[in-house]
UniProtKB/TrEMBL annotation, chains A, B:
InterPro entries: Alkaline_phosphatase_core_sf, Phosphodiest/P_Trfase, Phosphonoacetate_hydro, Phosphonoacetate_hydro_insert. Pfam families: Phosphodiest. Gene3D superfamilies: Alkaline Phosphatase, subunit A, Domain 2, Phosphonoacetate Hydrolase. This is Phosphonoacetate hydrolase. Keywords: Hydrolase. Its EC number is 3.11.1.2. The keyword Ubl conjugation does not apply. Coiled coil: none annotated. One of its GO terms (molecular function) is phosphonoacetate hydrolase activity. The gene is phnA. NCBIfam families: hydr_PhnA (TIGR02335). It comes from Ramlibacter humi.
Length: 404, 404
C-alpha cells in the first residue's frame, strides 16, 4: 500500500488509466450514449460502474486536476484557481508554478515506488503542476514537438503519435491526448497513466449537438482501444459547463469590480477571477466564481449581504465560511467568495473583458452549478459505501482500491 | 380599474396579447436569438423589456396557466396540478374540471367589464379551465374543427385559420395557436388575447438545436405580425425544461411508490404525480414533483428525513411547509411534497410507467430546477420595483399596468 495525503492506495496490478475530460458536464455523455455515439461507454456503464460526483468549487481546471492527482481538496494541495492575488508580493499571478503546490501527487509517489507513470495534458499550463516531483513521462499536446528526455521523460512524441501538433484552440488538441495515450500504452505499457483534455469543444457546443457528439465519439474510440489492451479506465471531469447568457443570447455578467468601484470607490476593493489564464478567447475570462479583497477597515458581512441581493448571485461567503464549505486554503482567497448561478458569470470591469473572440453564445463554469461530473469506471466496484458523497478526486481510489 | 384576486388592473387601451409558451426554458430564446432566428424578439428585448421570472412549483402546465390568467398562485386559484387525489371521494382524478377552480380569472372579469376577449390553447384540456365564466372566444387547436358559437364563441375556425387540425403530438399544434391568434387579431381585433401553446417540441429538443430553433423562428414570425398590428405583447412560460437522464441516456427516475411499498408495505402510502394527464407519450408521466399521502398513524417527519437522503432528491417538505413555500392549497396536497433535482424525475412504480413512447432522451419539468421562465414585454416598462421577484403570473400586470 502507498499512503499519499492521508489516503491509502493499492499498487496497480494492471495498467490503470485515469481520464479527466475537461468541462464534461454529465449530459454530454448521456446525450452521446443515447444517440449511439459511444458504444464503449455504453458497455462500460452496463458492465462497469457509472457514478455522478462533485468536483471542487471553484469548478475550474487547475484546482480540479490537482485534486484528482493528489486525491485531496485545494485546502490540502493549495491550488485554488488558475490565477491568484499573491498577498506576499501584492501582485496578481498565474498559479502554474509548482511553488504553489502544498502536497505531493499520487503520480509522484507511484513513480517513487517504482511504477512507470505517464501523464499527457492538452495545454502546457497544467503539465508542470501535474508532473511536479514525478519521475516518468509528462508532456502536453500543445508542446508535443518540444519534448525532451530531460524535461518530459520522452522525445519524438510527434513521430510516435503520427499527428501534427494541433492548434491550442481546437478539438484536435484533446484528440492528440487520447491518441498519445493509446500509443504510449501500445509501446510502453505504463502502470499508471493520467490523461487530461481541454474544454474547447465544451465551451462552444452544448450536450447532444453534432459537434459535441463528434468529440465524444472520437474519445470513445480511443478509450475502447485502451480497454482492449486490458486497462482499468476511470473517467471523470474537472468541472461541468453551462450556458451563461441572457434572453438576448449575450453573456449575462455581474461586473463585480465595477460594482465595488461604485460602492467603495475606484480600485478600493480587488476582484480576482481565478478562471483567468492566457487562453481566454473562448470564454473571455468569464466564469461563475470570484474572490474579493476588501480595503482595510471595510467589514465583510454588510458587503456580503448586499452582494447576495444582486440578481444572478447564488452564494456569497466570507473567507472562513468559504474555505470550510469549498475546502479552500483560506490564505489564498480574499475576504469574500462570490458564486453566481447557472446562467450568470462574474466579470471584473466591463472595460477589461474582451468578448470579441466569442463566436458562440457563452458557455462557462466555475460555480456550484457546474459541480456535477461523471465518475465512470469500466469495472464493477466492490467495498464502497452507498451513502458516500463521490468526488472527482476519488478516481484513483476507485481505480486502484475498489475494482473487482 | 378592475380588481381581480386582490390585484388591480387598468383596462386595455390597445390590443393586449399574453403568450404562454409551454416549456420555454429561457435558454431556448437566448440560443434562438443568438443564432439569428428571432429578429422580432431581438428587437423586443432591445426596445422593450426582458425579465426572468419564477413560475409556480409544481412547474406544470395547468397550475401555471391558471396562475397567469388569475394573477395569483395555486393557494388562491386551487389548481395545483394536472391530476390530484380527491380525498373527499377517495379517488385520483384529472383536474380539468372547472369545479376545482377557487378564483375567477382576469379574462372573465375583463369580458364582464365589456371588453372583447379571445383565448386559444393548444390542447383542449386547458380550455375549459381558462374559459370558465368567460364570455368571448375560447377554443383549442386540438378541437378547432368542433368549435361552436355556443361552446366556443366562434365557429368556422379551420376556415379562418386556413390550416388543418394538427396532431396532438406535433409542433403544428402550437403553430395553429399563433396562426389563429394572428387571424383573430386581423379579423376581430379583440381587446385582450391569451395564447397558450404545448411543449411537444421542448420535451424532445434542447435549446439551440435545429428543431427548437425552427419552433422559435416560427413563433417569432407570428409575434412580429401581432406587433405590426399594434399589439402589446407579454411573453412568458408555464415552466422550463431540463434533460432528465442518467449517464447512459436513460430516464433517471426515483420510483417513489416502490420506495414507499418497501418502506411501509405495498400500497400503504399513495404517491401522486401531478404531471399525469392523458397525453404522456412524450414524458411517460415522469416529472420532478410528487406528493405523498401517508397511511394514518405514520409520522411524516422521519419519512421526510429518509427521502431527503435519496440520491437525486432536492427538497422534501411536509404539507404545511410545502403549502407555504410553494403557495399551494394545503387541502389538495399530500402529507409530503417531494421535488427531485435538475437531472432526476420521480415516478410511482417502475411497472406503471410506459416509457416505450420515448423516442428521444427524456426532457421534463415539475421541479424547482424548471422554475426560471422568460417574462418579456415588447414595450418599455414604467413604475416597477427593481427588487421585485418577478412571477410569470405578473404578465397581465406588466402588460396592462406598466407599459410606457
Amino acid at each position: 500500500m502507498l499512503t499519499v495525503n492521508h489516503r491509502s492506495y493499492r499498487r496497480p496490478t494492471q495498467p490503470t488509466v485515469v481520464v479527466c475530460v475537461d468541462g464534461c458536464e454529465p449530459d454530454y455523455l448521456a446525450q452521446a450514449v443515447a444517440a449511439g455515439h459511444m458504444p464503449w461507454l455504453k458497455k462500460a456503464l452496463a458492465e462497469g460502474s457509472g457514478l455522478v460526483a462533485d468536483c471542487v468549487v471553484p469548478s475550474f481546471t487547475n484546482p480540479n486536476n490537482l485534486s484528482i492527482v493528489t486525491g485531496a481538496p485545494p485546502s490540502v494541495h493549495g491550488i485554488c484557481g488558475n490565477y491568484l492575488f499573491d498577498t506576499a508580493s501584492g501582485t496578481e499571478v498565474m498559479m502554474n508554478d509548482p511553488k504553489w503546490l502544498r502536497a505531493p501527487s499520487l503520480l509522484a509517489a507511484l513513480a517513487d515506488a517504482g511504477h512507470s507513470v505517464a501523464v499527457v495534458t492538452a495545454k502546457d499550463k497544467l503539465r508542470r503542476l501535474l508532473g511536479h516531483g514525478m519521475k516518468g513521462i509528462c508532456f502536453s499536446s500543445e508542446k508535443a514537438d518540444q519534448c525532451t528526455i530531460e524535461e518530459n521523460g520522452i522525445d519524438g512524441v510527434v513521430q510516435l503519435v503520427g499527428k501534427p501538433v494541433p492548434s491550442v484552440y481546437s478539438a484536435d488538441l484533446s484528440e492528440f491526448v487520447f491518441a498519445a495515450g493509446v500509443r504510449l500504452m501500445q509501446t510502453r505499457r505504463p502502470d499508471v497513466m493520467y490523461l487530461s483534455t481541454t474544454d474547447y469543444v465544451q465551451h462552444k457546443h452544448a450536450p447532444g449537438t453534432p459537434e459535441a457528439n463528434a468529440f465524444y465519439a472520437m474519445m470513445d474510440g480511443y478509450l475502447g482501444q485502451l480497454e482492449a489492451m486490458g486497462c482499468v479506465i476511470a473517467l471523470t471531469a474537472d468541472h461541468g459547463m453551462n450556458s451563461k447568457v441572457g434572453l438576448d443570447g449575450r453573456p449575462q455578467v455581474i461586473y463585480l469590480q465595477d460594482w465595488f468601484d461604485r460602492e467603495l470607490g475606484e480600485g478600493a476593493a480587488r476582484v480576482i477571477l481565478p478562471i483567468t489564464d492566457p487562453y481566454v478567447v473562448h470564454h473571455g475570462a468569464l466564469g461563475s466564481f470570484a474572490t474579493v479583497y476588501l480595503p482595510a477597515g471595510t467589514a465583510a458581512a454588510p458587503m456580503a449581504d448586499k452582494l447576495r441581493r444582486l440578481p444572478g448571485m447564488e452564494v456569497v461567503l466570507e473567507r472562513g465560511a468559504a474555505a470550510e464549505r469549498f475546502e479552500l486554503p483560506p490564505d489564498r482567497i480574499g475576504d469574500l467568495v462570490c458564486v453566481s448561478e447557472r446562467f450568470t458569470v462574474i466579470g471584473t470591469s466591463a472595460s477589461r473583458h474582451d468578448l470579441s473572440g466569442l463566436d458562440a453564445p457563452l458557455r462557462s463554469h466555475g460555480g456550484i452549478s457546474e459541480q456535477r461530473v461523471p465518475l465512470v469506471v469500466n469495472r464493477k466496484l466492490t467495498g464502497i459505501d452507498p451513502a458516500r458523497r463521490w468526488r472527482n478526486f476519488d478516481a484513483f481510489d476507485l481505480a486502484l482500491n475498489h475494482v473487482a
